[in-house]
Amino acid sequence: MRPNLDRSSIALPNSLKMKKLFAAVLLSLSTAAVYAVPFGSSSVLVVEDGTGKILLEKNANAIVPIASLTKLMTAMVILDAKQDMDEKIEIDAKDVDMLKHSTSRVPVGASIPRRDVLQLALMSSDNRAAASLGRTYPGGIRAFKFAVKNKIAALQMTQTTIEEPTGLSPHNISTASDLVKMATAAAHYPEITRITTDTKDIININGRGVEYHNTNRLVGAAGWDIGMSKTGYTEEAGRCLIMRITAAGKNATLVLLNAGASSVRVMDALNIRRFMSAGTASAGAEPAIRTPRLRAGLRAPAISASSTVKVSSAARVSTRKHVRATRSVKSNRPARKERKHR
After folding, report:
1. Is 244 a residue whose pLDDT tops 70?
2. Is 104 among the catalytic positions?
3. In the annotation, is 68 catalytic?
């Protein structure tokens, strides 16, 4: 004779098992959503300073034009030459951009100390300023190109070619992996870190003080601790960015290449900062990140399954502990369109 068992006593364990299974599935899906980070930039690389550990990676070895990121290399070569930084450089007609016809607020004929010309080239990404630095290099532009080639070799940037000092040429090419090497080297120059983190400066142009601003609007923005910065843009290169940042006590160098709009580039940087902060931030510590809507005429980034970056296993372990701290992504309008060829 079978014992008279209460059906609820049998169903209860199965119900608990199903609840546990369901919770585990939800947790795994949520965790995947956190560390499968989509980016609008075609190439992304985030490396932890000091250790060289790769935190995020997407198409890091793709060879692409680098636009005005070139100017970090220009600045290093100029500083290595130890020229007189108080010597005045006269902006020449040869410094005018005849390739992209980009605008400049530095007039031909202006006589400016070399240190201020370097400030304009790095902070405001002025192409005439960068061209004049290369032109007045000891031995002229040919000697400048030779010095750049040697610097590239010394930094073991094996996938990099730089043909001129501004970045306007689409033949100035590199990879995110190589550019991390360049950024790491540039960060050892106090002049470069100081200039690229200035929000603005007033430069004497023909006896009149003219205010110039940093092309990276994140510099000086609330919540950002930026140790070095350089933007870039041409039609071939898209929007590019190099930054060394500190977030939640962690130091990292990030490279973003070929974003479809300046707002997309900023969004990618925000996502990186949020990812770095995930290991220590509480649910309310990081502001919500909004996804920009592109204006008509702007090139939209292709975000597909291949747009998901690789995340280091160590970072995934840290992130899993804070899955519930993530927030949903909302839409918002993009920021004002960036000036061309910077």
Report:
1. yes
2. no
3. yes
How many CB atoms are closer than 10 A to CB 12? 11
Specify the amino acid at residue 314: A
Question: Whole-prediction pTM value?
Answer: 0.76
Nearest of 221, 222, 228 to residue 254 by alpha carbon: 228
Distance CA 43, CA 237 (A): 11
Instruction: Name the active-site residue from 125, 174, 277, 307.
Output: 125
Say if residue 261's pLDDT is above 90.
Answer: yes
Instruction: Give the SS3 label for residue 244.
Output: strand
Our answer to whether residue 20 is catalytic in this structure is no
The matching CATH number, chosen from 3.30.1490.270, 3.20.190.10, 3.40.710.10, 3.30.2310.20, for 40-332 is 3.40.710.10
Catalytic residue among 58, 71, 151, 181: 71
Say which of 41, 68, 102, 177 is annotated catalytic: 68
Q: Is the pLDDT assigned to residue 315 strictly greater than 70?
A: no
Q: How confident is the model over 330-339, as pLDDT tens digits?
A: 334 444 444 4
- pLDDT tens string 183-229: 999 999 999 999 999 999 999 999 999 999 999 999 999 999 999 99
Please state, in angstroms and rounded to a whole number, the distance separating the CA atoms of residues 249 and 11.
49
What token pair was written down for 118? 């370097």
pLDDT digits (tens, 9 = 90+) for 139-151: 999 999 999 999 9
Tell me the C-alpha distance between 232 and 183, whole Å: 14
Query: How many C-beta atoms lie closer than 10 Å to residue 13's C-beta?
Result: 9
Concatenating the DSSP letter of every residue in 77-118 gives HHHHTT--TTSEEE--GGGS-SSS----SS-TT-EEEHHHHH
Percent composition of the chain: helix, strand, coil (DSSP 3-state, to 5): 35, 20, 40
Task: Report CA-CA distances (Å) from 66 to 125, 143, 178, 216, 275.
Answer: 13, 22, 11, 16, 25
